[in-house]
Amino acid sequence: MAEMDGVYDLPYARAPHPIYAGRKIPAWEMIRHSVTIMRGCFGGCSFCSITEHEGRIIQSRSEESILKEIETIRDKTEGFTGVISDIGGPTANMYRLACKDRQTEAVCRRPSCVYPDICKNLDTNHDPLIQLYRKVRAVPGVKKVNVASGVRYDLAVESPEYVQELVEHHVGGYLKIAPEHTEDGPLSMMMKPGIGSYDAFKKLFDEAAKKAGKKYFLIPYFIAAHPGTTDEDMMNLALWLKKNGYRADQVQTYLPSPMALSTAMYHTGFNPLKPVRRGVSEPVDTVRGLRQRRLHKAFLRYHDAENWPLLREALKSMGRADLIGPGKHQLVPSWQPAGTGAKGDRKQAGHKARQQPGEAKGGKFLTKGVLPRRPTGKA
Ligand code: SF4
Questions:
Q1: Is 108 near ligand 1, meaning CB less than 6 Å away?
Q2: Which of 134, 188, 209, 366 is least surrounded by Cβ atoms within 10 Å, i.e. has the fewest?
Q3: Which CA distances in Å does 308 have to 222, 302, 331, 346?
Q4: Ligand 1 atom, smallest distance to 122 CA
């Protein structure tokens, strides 16, 4: 902690390099009023390399150091209006969480402390974070403190008090969380918890919002075409989205990135989470071809008429033509709106998706870094 404080207490200029004078820098706009409270992540998600970059053992700053930085932002950072835009790190709610036993932690070789289940040796006490939030809110001149970093929801459900504190004081209309998928096959390759954890968190979130008298929404993120994802998995995810009234506006299709375990799956076709030996390695289906990658993305955007020809063709070849039609339980209509779908699954600029029969209103959500406008008036 002393080393972390030492680094963060250095007298930074808190301004872009003078070479950018007068220019608007989007990344700077995002971070200039945000505070990093910790580094590292013990989540171990296969597609992410934060653990490799920052370590699996969480390094937290002291409260004093964090509060001092917030006072510095208040006093010295241009344009501060009293709003801390984010207080977090790679994961919002791993502050001061650690293995109960330092010796065990030092020799432990598990790639994740929370997958397949939360390890019984992990201390999941959120009290230090709750106390920190309260102290930050009490800093004179600070009007609002947002949590924009991703919340690890399977950890958050361990502390209903934390969820209440988060919803009541630190959510601005929407909260982004990342179940990444609904199906066990791809989730096991990603080392992510089952969708049951999302349901448990949503229940707590909705209860906390109701108690606080606010109307807030969860924005779930999903990944298409991750290694180990079948066409059927994507179809089931699309059915889940429709059933729950979600329409993803921007989605991400998996791309291999340096140092991540999923990258090894993608390039070798084997599962590195199981023993890898000549002749006995577990094969993993990887989604490589352009058509299949487009199809997986199209399932995430099942509501976009541009995708309907591709989805109809795929559903027929999967033996699921029963999902084509106007019913609430069906995924795509059998008709095609004039002027759409002419380019197969390619998106046409400016096209607006239409609401389908049986789809809940207001369920549209954006993914990957673009937040909808906050609701106006008192939430
Ligand atoms: S024993 Fe459990 S909590 Fe401790 S480091 Fe290993 S996985 Fe994490």
A1: yes
A2: 134
A3: 20, 7, 9, 10
A4: 3
